[in-house]
Amino acid sequence: MKAIEFNHVGKQYRLGLVSTGTFSHDLSRWWAMNVLGKEDPFLKIGDTNIRSKKGESEFVWALKDINFSVEQGDVIGIIGKNGAGKSTLLKLLSRVTAPTVGEINVCGRIASLLEVGTGFHPEMTGRENIYMNGAIMGMTKAEITRKLDEIVDFSGCERYIDTPVKRYSSGMKVRLGFAVAAHLEPEILVVDEVLAVGDAEFQKKAIGKMQDVSKGEGRTVLFVSHNMAAVQKLCKRGILLEDGAVKYSGGIEDTVRMYIDDGTTPSQSVFYDDLSTAPGNDKVRIKSFEVLPVKGDVVSVASGIHFRLTFMNYYPTFHLDAAFVLHTADDTIIFNSGKVVSPHCQSKIGEYVVEFSLPPFMLNRGKYYMTIWMGEKNKYRICEKYSHPFMVEDAFPDDPYLGKPRPGILKMEINASSQFREVYGK
Amino acid sequence: MQQQVWTMKIRPHEKLWHIDIKEIWRYRDLIELFVRRNIVVQYKQTILGPLWYLIQPILTVIMNMVVFGGIAKMSTDGMPQALFYMAGNICWFYFSDCLNQTSNTFTANQNMFGKVYFPRLVVPIAVVISNLLRFVIQLGLFVALYLYFFVGGAPIVPNWAILLIPLLVVMLAGLGLGFGILISSLTTKYRDFTILFTFIVQLWMYATPIVYPLSMVEEGPLRTLIMANPMTSIIEAFKYATLGQGYFSWLALGYSFLFMSVLLLFSVVIFNKVQRNFMDTV
């Protein structure tokens, strides 16, 4: 059963100073809509929501034609750059503002944590504010009283619970706010970037609580964050927004990959025919960098990967090092390993080839970058760093276990064994 | 396969008359908490605290006695000046406090309104209720003063109209709330109205028989204007009920009541319409 459904939803904003000349605009709009019975004349014009570009119209669509639905019990991550429309989407859903066109259907009570601590009054104590905050979110007093101990305990602010909130640190306010919201028991929980303020321990606690909420209690969670690790940890599905439109919707791994991916399709191998424009300088020039499967035709999870770097060296009699740094698209380093190309200051002018392989079942499918450093005896680099992207394809689409996409940077065979032992008695 | 049900549908436009009273009732605990917050917060970190509820009318009445009774020598229809001014002022205070404190509902709460949904009418309703407490305390002061003069043999006779006081209070609240939320709806977009209304409310007090009795105003366009003011009949009826002197007319009270009902209905509709999109314009 669906919990949320967006049907062609759009939200239009007017740019610039809102209160300049709106009397006349409002009048003509009112005249057209209510007296002449026409469509809203200002809906027709409007650009999409691209922040960096100068638009032609003063009306802008923060969201345009959004369609998606969320099943009950799903945990959905909504990701996208600043200004992609994430917050607007949540605002529409939590009825802070109404959509311009389209309709949103919801099944169940929504509680939103657009920013925790909403309605906290600085003069009132923590306890009073728990009641206040809970009631604003739609809880009754009896409900809050029943859960008060749990909330206080979860927030970890027991000692200060009868102190005015204005004496709290910002982290404590967030803890208290989140604690209230986490105990709301709504059918749908909307969370917007709240974990940024709490410390590591609290973030862990909060994520754990959200997992409980979705898994144990079958409730729906919409989670907006720029923290990809948290999103991946928490969500099963993802929606990628770009410029006010849904760019991708699907499994969370793929959604995050789409978001991090800069959009270039990597060529597996590069050859620089013209040495004068090849990467490098007058000391070294990269002639080619090849990413090849060890067996088969495609670089895949199962093929093993062979790397071959060919370069020209114009710098004689020195200690030449080459370092290979493998990292993911979001710049997590997987390894950094090197090779002394010419020990004992014996480098010669001419072509060098450095080769190495990675075994099958190591890298997962996805996009990776190999960055190459060349320098003299670990001290300084003699050529600018060179970064090369490549793709690893999925292997064994037919295999029931290995064929399924799995999350993670690595996809390794763990060669596990299992034994059975019969145990008598208790 | 379960049947798909939607418990809530969010549309760009709701019907104009769609006012969800049930929803407001579901949030009654929130109203109660807002009321308590309004009262508690007002006098936090003050030394005299709730005593200010009494000091304010006492000072106003003394000032009225000096300026209007003493210097301008205006008539109070033969009633003790202190009682006469007190009666008018506590009623006016209740009305104007309701009006002033609800007239910035949207602008003052935009932080909260911008993050979470609850029926926005909860906030002005809570203001009206918390001011009621203040009115009751001031009424207590009035009663104390009243007994003092009554025992002292002042020519004051309460009568049956005292039973109407709850209705008068409801009308004061209704007018204050109605004008307040109407102003708050208008001022989300055009802030000019804020300045205009502060000024109007100030003038309005003088168009209401508070520091003078209606009987002082002679027949003519001025009296028609003052009678057109829906506050006039309420305050005169209050004075009539408690002091025995004043203008009491069912017709005038009926007019004020009708005025209040229409205003309240109209304001709630406007308020309801504005609340859906005000975050974009505030």
TrEMBL record, chain A:
GO terms under cellular component: membrane
Domain of life, per lineage: Bacteria
PROSITE patterns: ABC_TRANSPORTER_1, ABC_TRANSPORTER_2
Limits of the ABC transporter domain: 43-268
Protein name stated in the entry: Lipopolysaccharide transport system ATP-binding protein
Family statement drawn from the similarity comment of this UniProt entry: Belongs to the ABC transporter superfamily.
Lineage of origin: Bacteria, Pseudomonadati, Bacteroidota, Bacteroidia, Bacteroidales
Keywords noted in UniProt: ATP-binding, Nucleotide-binding, Transport
InterPro entries: AAA+_ATPase (IPR003593), ABC_transporter-like_ATP-bd (IPR003439), ABC_transporter-like_CS (IPR017871), ABC_transpr_TagH-like (IPR015860), Bact_Polysacc_Export_ATP-bd (IPR050683), P-loop_NTPase (IPR027417), Wzt_C (IPR029439)
Species of origin: Xylanibacter ruminicola (Prevotella ruminicola)
SUPFAM superfamilies, A to Z: P-loop containing nucleoside triphosphate hydrolases
GO molecular function, one term: ATP hydrolysis activity
TrEMBL record, chain B:
Gene Ontology molecular function: ABC-type transporter activity
Subcellular location: Cell inner membrane; Cell membrane
Keywords of this entry: Cell inner membrane, Cell membrane, Membrane, Transmembrane, Transmembrane helix, Transport
GO cellular component, one term: plasma membrane
Transmembrane domains' residue ranges: 51-71, 83-100, 121-148, 160-183, 195-215, 247-271
UniProt-listed Pfam families: ABC2_membrane (PF01061)
Residue ranges annotated for the ABC transmembrane type-2 domain, each copy included: 48-274
GO biological process: lipopolysaccharide transport
The keyword Transmembrane helix belongs to this UniProt entry's keyword annotation: yes
InterPro entries for this protein: ABC2_TM, ABC2_TM_bact-type
Main location, first listed in the record: membrane
Membrane topology recorded in Swiss-Prot or TrEMBL: Multi-pass membrane protein
Family of this protein: Belongs to the ABC-2 integral membrane protein family.
Protein name: Transport permease protein
